[in-house]
Design brief:
The protein is globular. It is an alpha+beta fold. A four-stranded antiparallel beta sheet has the order 2-3-4-9, with no helix packed on it. The protein starts with a helix and ends with a strand. 17% of the residues lie in helices and 24% in strands.
């Protein structure tokens, strides 16, 4: 039985205001591996549930996840500088903190920081991953699952970028037939190459 386009869109569209987007936003979502955003590292551009965002650590090592476009002129904040408690836009120097507050407008004669707010989302670091809560209201607690509390030598955290919707990724994970063909080892090869390492 094939889904109609409308049924497919209902299940797979996750942008703001969509039914599935609202559902998935009511849970913490893993958005990056901790090693991708080290202290003192560059901002990380991300696309999460149809939103262009930037993840950064401020000068106090606090994580922030805000809209990628500067609220002033839309400049890409993933090119911004981390300084003075936030991320500074390279175009006009506006400084945005981890909560989306504008805390400096150096070129403005009359500052109006209190009238500017970038979209921001709560983030937490747990189990070698960065988690975002993009839903309404107060975020729930992230449970202390064993895979999140295990010592670092006992876990492996990575991020994989897949050019598909969330449902196609899940469907592939529970499909037992594709593993027989797609993930099998070539005859005579007893190792799987992952990047440059062999396991």
């Amino acid at each position: 039985l094939m889904l109609t386009k409308e049924q497919n869109d209902l299940l797979t569209k996750t942008g703001p205001g969509t039914p599935c987007g609202k559902l998935l936003r009511s849970y913490w979502q893993p958005i990056a591996a901790s090693h991708e955003i080290p202290p003192g590292g560059d901002p990380l551009p991300l696309r999460v549930m149809s939103e262009d965002l930037v993840l950064f650590r401020d000068t106090s090592d606090r994580l922030g996840l805000i809209q990628r476009g500067c609220p002033h002129r839309g400049t890409d904040l993933s090119y911004g500088r981390i300084e003075d408690g936030g991320i500074r836009c390279l175009y006009h120097g506006w400084l945005i903190d981890k909560d989306g507050n504008c805390i400096d407008q150096p070129a403005e004669k009359r500052k109006f920081c209190d009238k500017v707010k970038a979209v921001s989302y709560p983030v937490q670091e747990k189990g070698g991953a960065i988690w975002a809560y993009m839903g309404e209201g107060q975020p729930p607690l992230i449970p202390d699952f064993q895979f999140l509390t295990a010592p670092e030598p006992n876990r492996w955290t990575y991020r994989s970028i897949q050019t598909c919707n969330w449902l196609q990724g899940v469907e592939s994970s529970i499909d037992p037939v594709h593993t027989t063909y797609l993930h099998r080892l070539p005859p005579g090869n007893r190792s799987i190459q992952i990047g440059r390492a062999h396991v």
